[in-house]
Amino acid sequence: MSSIEQKKLAMGIDSSSPWQQIGKLVAIREVNVLLALVLIGALISLFTPYFLTTNNIMGVFRSFSMTAIMSIGMVLVIITGGIDLSVGSAMGLSGLITALCFNANLPTVICVAAGLGVGLVFGLVNGLLVTGIGLPPFIATLGTLSVGRGLMYMITHGVPVTPDAPAAFAFIGQGYVGPVPAPVVIMLVLMVIFTIIMQRTRFGRHIYATGGNENASRLSGVRVDRVKLAVYIISSTIASLAGIISFARLLSAEPASGFGAELDVIAAAAIGGASLSGGVGSVTGAVIGAALVGIIANGVILLNINTYAQQGITGCVIIVAVSLDILRSRIMGERK
Amino acid sequence: MKSLLNCTYAVLAGLSILTTGVALAKNKADITVAVIPKVAVPFFDDCNTGATEAAKDLGVKYQWVVPENTQGATQVKIIEDLTARHVDGIAISVNEPRSVQGVIKQAIASGIKVLTYDSDSANSGRSMYIGTVNEKAGEVMGDEMAKAINGEGKIAIVTGQLGASNLNERIAGVKKALAAYPKITIVDTEGTEDDLAKAVSVTEAIFRAHPDLKGLFGVSQVGGPAATKVLSEHEFADRKGAIKIFAFDDLPDTIRGVKDGYINGIMVQRPITMGRLAVQHLVSQIQGQETEAKDIDTGVTVVTAANIGSYTK
Lengths: 336, 313
Fold this sequence. Notes:
Chain A is an all-alpha fold.
């Protein structure tokens, strides 16, 4: 018996060969994306001393935390086989409504509640359009995306709303817990909560089941419509939370806030292994996917790569990451 | 073939004389002018204010038509619609100079007076351009920076949309001015899509990547608020004053940045003047009073802590 295997035995790991061990690890999607993340991070830090500093890493975390938070809700919708294009508008409008409430000198609790309320309404409308009328999710949420953006321009006439807000509120966007920015803490807490929901609760299993095979789930007693309604509400409400945090960070609610965010959020979920045809995906994967895109955006600037190339690079990463994932699952499938 | 073409030209010329004739007879109250901004941002609200006032003073009908996005095609569609409805004059701030050339020519051929303001389409046949000559404004900005950093050091540029021609002209102006200072180097130019959250991340990354940065240009409207935000963060507290900031446009957050000492100067354009002049010149062209229009540079005011309470737009 080799020393490695002895160690494994001592650690309580089964004594299958190291190759099988690696194989098992590769079978976990998140590990692949995490590996890519570490590789790209190492590559960037090789060429610039400013990447691996506490300030920069925390800055990067804070930058991508908005996308990551929204991707947690998005991945739930995607797992049911749906899509939510309205997250950017829900985010922007919620931040704006919260800002307007502060402008009217309302108490913080009411301002935040009003912002979250916007998300709730977005989710309800999306969910009812999809389950009640039977609109394809793409169309339903494309509609609410436009309505939300239109409302923002109608309310602001293009002028940012910049009220003063109490320090306790600004903390959720600007504050730190130890060295960690508050939005990152919120992101991690949400990630843990929703990972537990997805893996340990009946509701989580029903979400996977709905996307895996809707008819079979319906026949076996899953209330599919209720599950769908719930995930759209969760997605929009989480997006509105992101909007409130973003406002707390900038203390300026702009009409362009969250514009186009849906694409970053969907990309994060897809890079993290979610299948747009439903049934597959994970919360941690989506967060790691957002991290990957965030690190690339930061690295491109630190490495002084031409800014015109940045979007192209991000696009290539999305295509490569998802292609590798599909190839991997094909090979794994053959092994079985 | 050639004679056919000549014929067409003759007919077109005849038509335009005819329409001018009709317009001459037109009552001011029957004149409709339409003004098109790039998209809904505060800058254009000021243009709208100036244009509305001018239209009211002159007693003409006035329409403010806002594109829903910054794509060239959206403005093309709007001009087509306005041409079909046969308004008398159109003033437009162009999102994409090339794409609107054809429709502007069509509008002019059908007797509509067209001028550009704020952002030009030089080869469209428009009668005139009213606005900041962006390259000149960029030069002013470059010279101000050179003075502030004593003609020496590393500087970076934060812009909005990478494709926006007015922003690229400002950058060209900055570079032209800085060419006179061989000891100043531009180390980085970054786009932000005019999204404040993105501009903050980009500015932070630039500050980290260049610890010896002497100056930052915000050539689009998000630059000022973003720089203020970043410099007021704990991490960059010691860079306040060490990095000279010059920005564009007087958004509330940018003004606050000047007052609190984060921003050294803002190039403020004169949007109210642009809107007012646009309507006035359109009307006098429609009435046939102005036949040889010349471009107007509305210029920029450099707003600093010294004159922040007293400048006009």
